[in-house]
UniProtKB/TrEMBL annotation:
Domain Uroporphyrinogen decarboxylase (URO-D): 20-29, 140-156
UniProt-listed Enzyme Commission number(s): 4.1.1.37
NCBIfam families in the cross-refs: hemE
Protein name: Uroporphyrinogen decarboxylase
Record keyword Lyase present: yes
Matching HAMAP family: URO_D
Length: 344
């Protein structure tokens, strides 16, 4: 039976006159109601681990804009925490973690099977959402891809060039491979449990895939993603997977075929005509509108929204940004984008 959910239809390959729409980071600091709930929670991690509040912020952008999909409110760094890393957020700066740079650090990590002990509240958030979402809204679960999660576990924070992770890869390849394998196994556990709790689609965020080149891209962006998708497809063959190898450039070509992803999310650096010929030929694509338009708005936002829709109109397409919406975005611009999409 064809789903009434437009997002699931696009993921099944259907070409729709009006593409389904959602936004990366749609629950976030640009929304006053998010800031109010976050204040109530205390800090960011408390928000992630309090199911009622995490479900509330997931629902806020659905109520305000009627997006075609809701994305679970959580963070990719909950998996390292579930594996035993210390995790905290420095206000105004970002995440901090205890690091994995020596065999002893790795040996202290927990096995993949026990991540559910820490992540159980996330599954409860999904169960709440399955009850509270409108019937036409799809529910997306997610995790970080192993390479991106590893960059944080090795450096202990975000790093523009991921240099510490590249250094460990070169200096201690066996340790690096073991870490990727542990994250891969934990991610299979985590996403399987998200699906069991109600996620209808899952997305893998490989935000730092762009710093992998050549054989390293195959080994650490393609292979772990393919392994996770293959394992999920055994357990849940009907649940589509979106992969986001951000800034992969020419390596977007063939990524869906090499990994088994049902949809590939495009960052805003990808040329649209190129993507039609080299990525959309393999199936559904998502994304590409530059998040900066949500700050600047106006005629340019309208024109770019139409350009994205027109470029991808010949195949299955999910409208989205090329990366997350930023805290300085104007909520009115999001409405303008949606009116442009749905109103013509
Ligand atoms: O201050 C706040 O309120 C926290 C800001 C914030 C938010 C809203 C962080 C901290 N995480 C999140 C939620 C989040 N993170 C979601 C929720 C669903 C959504 O609405 O999209 C998702 C999918 C993520 C994924 C995530 N976290 C990624 C991958 C996607 C991407 O943006 O590239 C990454 C790299 C993270 C790590 C992270 N968490 C938070 C920050 C500030 C960062 C980035 C740190 C860095 O710059 O390296």
């Amino acid at each position: 039976m064809t789903s009434q959910k437009t997002l699931l239809r696009a993921l099944a390959g259907e070409v729709q006159a009006v593409p389904p729409v959602w936004m990366m980071r749609q629950a976030g600091r640009y929304l006053p109601e998010y800031r109010a709930t976050r204040e109530k929670a205390g800090d960011f991690l408390a928000l992630c681990y309090t199911p009622d509040l995490a479900a509330e912020v997931t629902l806020q952008p659905i109520r305000r804009y009627g997006f075609d999909a809701a994305i679970l409110f959580a963070d990719i760094l909950l998996v390292p925490q579930a594996l035993g890393a210390d995790l905290w957020f420095v206000p105004g700066e970002g995440p901090r973690l205890s690091t994995v740079t020596a065999q002893g650090d790795f040996d202290a990590l927990k096995p993949a099977e026990v991540v559910h002990e820490t992540l159980a509240p996330v599954y409860e958030t999904l169960r709440i959402l399955t009850r509270e979402l409108p019937a036409e809204t799809a529910l997306i679960g997610f995790a970080g891809a192993p390479w991106t999660v590893a960059t944080y576990m090795i450096a202990g924070q975000g790093t523009p060039d991921q240099a510490p992770a590249h250094a460990l890869m070169a200096a201690q390849p066996a340790l690096f491979d073991a870490l990727i394998a542990r994250i891969t196994a934990a991610t299979i556990e985590y996403l399987s449990a998200q699906i069991a709790a109600g996620a209808e689609v899952v997305k893998l965020f490989d935000s730092w895939a762009g710093s992998l080149t050549g054989a390293a891209f195959d080994r650490y962006a393609v292979a772990p993603t393919a392994e996770i998708i293959a394992a999920l497809k055994v357990r849940h063959p009907d649940v589509p997977v979106i992969a986001f190898p951000r800034e992969a450039g020419a390596r977007y070509d063939g990524f869906a075929r090499a990994t088994g992803a049902d949809c590939v999310a495009l960052d805003n650096a990808v040329d649209r005509q190129w993507a039609v010929a080299h990525v959309q030929r393999d199936g559904c694509v998502q994304g590409n509108l530059a998040p900066s338009h949500m700050v600047t708005g106006g005629a340019e936002l309208v024109a770019e929204t139409r350009a994205v829709v027109q470029a991808f109109a010949g195949g299955p397409h999910i409208f989205n940004l090329g990366h997350g919406i930023t805290p300085d975005a104007d909520p009115a611009n999001v409405q303008l984008m949606i009116d442009t999409l749905r109103g013509g």
